[in-house]
Design a protein that fits this description.
heterodimer, A: 497 residues, mainly alpha, 2 domains, 0% strand, B: 310 residues, alpha/beta, Rossmann fold, Alpha-Beta Plaits, 6-stranded mixed sheet, 4-stranded antiparallel sheet
Chain lengths: 497, 310
């Protein structure tokens, strides 16, 4: 038996992710996990017994199964939606705290191995929690009153959320290299996880008490959208973490750029699927707008990258000029980030046109979709490329890169909130009600109302077009430099592929 | 053939030029001391050699592989022991070494052999189950060295490996480094403890403000520096007067006061020393000892550098 098993065991052992092996060993050796695990189990058992005792002493009408399940979910949610992602954050930030990042870079481990190992170790913790809660969940089902489908959907959603949040935790810890910043991010992340856990409780209570909602078309769509969103957010977070774990001197951008293209494509596939359930043409543009939101973070990163290609990244330039031009948006650099943004806009507009033509929508619907997506992308273009283009013209973009990134992140909520506050301060009712041209969501809603299209939005639309033209003009010099850098022949002594 | 070849490396951080056109080589089996004051650019150069930083100009070749063009292949030949060494403190020595052996892609049998080899070399066998947090500084450095040796690199880059070690641990580390050189590994080692380096290095590279100040064999660099003789002088009383007299005397430079006398550089041969002695007596000073002093690495360092930071 041993002679047969030994080679298999060795092969499996060799294939295990080193980070996973290390993390699991550390968890088992450390007190943090053992204490939390024991405590969670103890609290759950106590609460479960309490619920059963109280419910049994009440009238027979009470659905004990539901109450039991909700109690167990509250404990399980705390473990898999708060503790597991939190420990993923802590284990990633330990790489900065213990100065081990350089050692990882020097080993054969690639960033994807690091992120995958961290995620797997978080999932093993989650698996331990799930296995602990399984007998309680079975008991909840046997106590009657609990819909099996609802319980399974809740479990599936909690697994997807755990994966998504763990990856977000890893990404946030990878972004916060400075100790002080890490403390702030840790506190915010912990608060966010706790709030999310509380919100999920409300959602679960609703589902458990009204299982019929899950069987409706809307309910099923909501579940699929939720699951895919959780995994998509996790995917974006994983890509960000991988970029951060790549060494500064490596090409961090191209894999992110390639993966970012998948977002509008996934949005198009969703729209196609949703259209089979409810033949509404609005899915075509609505999902492109939704996909643009996770892309915003990536765009901010892309457009604020250093303009010049590094000595190690220069070798990624294709040898043929034509190919080099086609692949231009995928290379690192702020100006080339504007180009990848343009590529996303083209995909989104192409998807809206293609889907509407495929569905045989009326020309009005196609036009509406194109105007809405076009407007939103133009708004984002000005938001992203105006400040970075201006700094590029002033020659200060590279030195103030981090500042620009922080400013861009802060600028979006500022654009939304400041007019509202000013409206409230100076008695401008519509601005105070979020109805102002800097609120892209209000403009989108306005655009859907046919009566308001031509008059109310004409002035803001013209201003936006003027700003877009100015933004484009400001970006022309750096765009030209970005093209020229890729096309210029390599000089002797430069790195070659 | 050289194992490590640094060719015209320049690295800037904004307006600061951390390393300015530095070139040197390290051959297999050679221990090369890397000397310079704090902020001279030693760590930056070592990080460039280890592929962790990218030079703005120039290149580094590790066994012929460019750190620019083939960083991954170069890394497999480099063992870098950084100054601020990282360790997972809540891990045991075995788990730590096993993790890095896995991270270097060593398969089960290779991993076992590598672990046995490095544990035996660094004499860590008795404490494999100990948690890293509980180790002494000396044992931590041994562990770091063991980790650095796991993938059997041809080039070792050790940044201040003796910092914070007690004398015994320093001697042990020195023996380990010598043993590594005997195995044919090229070793670039930086340290502030120059006597330590003098005892184990065959070559030295002196750097200050990012610029190369001297490079070559210890004897070679010493001879280049000791065109001026270094003299020790002890006088009876009147130390202040004597110091002033020496500073003002032509041909005398780098006057330093020591516990019982002075050291200074003197241009010329024995004739010049005899003239100086006569002049001292004529000036009413009372010399009791005047002798040339053997130049050590510390003197070389002080002669070549001005002690200025970046």
């Amino acid at each position: 038996m041993n002679t047969v098993a030994a080679p298999v065991e060795r092969t499996l052992d060799d294939r295990l992710n080193p980070i996973l092996v290390k993390e699991v060993r550390q968890s088992l050796r450390g007190r943090y996990f053992r204490w939390l695990f024991g405590l969670t189990l103890l609290v759950t058992t106590f609460l479960a017994l309490m619920v059963v005792t109280i419910a049994a002493s009440q009238s027979s009408e009470v659905r004990i199964g539901q109450e039991f399940f909700l109690t167990i979910y509250a404990c399980m949610g705390g473990a898999v939606l708060v503790l597991v992602p939190f420990s993923a954050f802590l284990s990633t930030s330990a790489e900065w705290d213990e100065n081990t990042y350089d050692l990882l870079v020097l080993s054969n481990l690639r960033p994807r191995h690091i992120v995958w190992g961290k995620l797997c170790s978080a999932l093993i913790q989650a698996l331990l929690y799930y296995s602990t809660f399984t007998p309680f969940l079975v008991a909840a089902f046997l106590l009657n009153g609990l819909d099996l489908l609802v319980a399974l959907v809740i479990l599936a959603c909690s697994i997807a959320t755990c994966i998504g949040l763990s990856l977000v935790g890893i990404a946030l810890a990878s972004l916060a290299r400075v100790r002080a910043l890490r403390g702030v991010v840790l506190a915010l992340f912990g608060a966010g996880l706790t709030a999310g856990w509380a919100a999920s409780l409300a959602f679960v209570v609703e589902l458990v008490q009204h299982p019929e909602e899950l069987r409706s078309d809307e309910g099923q769509v909501a579940v699929v959208v939720y699951l895919t969103t959780a995994l998509l957010v996790g995917g974006v977070a994983a890509v960000i973490a991988m970029a951060r774990f790549s060494h500064e001197e490596e090409n961090r951008s191209t894999p992110m750029r390639v993966l970012s293209i998948s977002l509008p494509v996934v949005a198009t596939l969703w729209a196609t699927w949703l259209h089979t359930i409810s033949s509404d043409s609005e899915f075509a543009w609505a999902l492109q707008i939704a996909a643009a939101h996770p892309l915003l973070l990536m765009w901010i990163f892309f457009v604020s990258e250093p303009e010049a290609l590094g000595r190690r990244t220069r070798k990624f330039v294709a040898g043929r000029r034509g190919l080099a031009l086609v692949l231009l948006p995928l290379l690192p650099g702020g100006a080339r980030g504007v180009l990848v943004f343009g590529l996303h806009a083209l995909i989104a507009l192409g998807a809206v046109t293609g889907l509407n033509l495929l569905w045989g929508s009326a020309p009005d619907e196609l036009f509406e979709g194109l105007v809405i997506v076009g407007w939103f992308y133009t708004f984002c273009f000005v938001y992203l490329a105006l400040p970075t283009g201006l700094l590029g013209v002033l020659g200060k973009a590279d030195r103030n890169r981090i500042l620009v990134r922080v400013l861009l992140v802060v600028l979006w909520p500022l654009l939304l909130f400041v007019p509202v506050m000013l409206g409230a301060l100076f008695g401008h009712a519509s601005a105070a009600n979020w109805e102002h041209p800097f609120n892209p969501y209000w403009v989108l809603m306005k655009m859907q109302r046919s009566d308001a299209k031509e008059d109310a939005l004409l002035a803001p639309g013209l201003v936006l077009l003027l700003l877009a033209a100015l933004t484009f003009a400001l970006n022309v010099p750096r765009l030209w430099r970005a093209v020229r850098e890729v096309l210029r022949p390599r000089v002797e002594g430069e790195v070659r592929p | 053939m050289t194992s490590l070849e640094v060719v015209g490396v320049t690295k800037r951080f904004g307006a600061l030029t951390a390393v300015d056109d530095v070139s040197f080589t390290v051959a297999p089996g050679e221990i090369c001391g890397f000397i310079g004051p704090n902020g001279a650019g030693k760590t930056t150069t070592m990080r460039i050699c280890s592929t962790l930083e990218l030079p703005d100009h120039g290149d580094v070749r590790v066994e012929g592989l460019s750190v620019l063009e083939e960083p991954r292949l170069a890394r497999r030949r480099i063992g870098f022991m950084p100054d601020a060494y990282g360790a997972y403190s809540a891990t045991s020595i075995h788990d730590y070494l096993d993790f890095f052996a896995r991270a270097y892609g060593l398969h089960a049998s290779e991993r076992r052999r590598a672990l046995e080899r490095v544990v035996e070399f660094t004499v860590l066998g008795d404490m494999l189950d100990k948690e890293i947090a509980s180790l002494s500084k000396g044992n931590k450095q041994r562990l770091c060295l063991a980790k650095t040796l796991l993938h059997d690199p041809a080039v070792m880059i050790l940044d201040e490996p003796a910092a914070g070690l007690d004398p015994r641990a320093r001697v042990e580390l020195r023996e380990l480094v010598r043993a590594l050189a005997q195995m044919g590994k090229a070793i670039l080692v930086s340290s502030h403890i120059l006597t330590e380096l003098a005892e184990m290095c065959s070559n030295v590279v002196v750097i200050e403000k990012g610029k190369l100040r001297g490079v070559g064999g210890v004897g070679e660099v010493t001879r280049a520096v000791t065109q001026k003789a270094r003299i020790f002088l002890r006088v009876l009383g009147e130390a202040e007067t004597c110091e002033r007299w020496l500073v003002e005397r032509p041909g005398v430079a780098a006057v330093r006061r020591e516990r019982e006398g002075f050291t200074f550089e003197l241009e010329g041969d024995s004739e010049a020393q005899a003239e100086l002695l006569a002049a001292l007596v004529a000036a009413g000073l009372r010399p009791v000892e005047l002798a040339p002093r053997a130049t050590n690495l510390e003197d070389v360092f002080l002669s070549l550098t001005e002690g200025k930071l970046q």
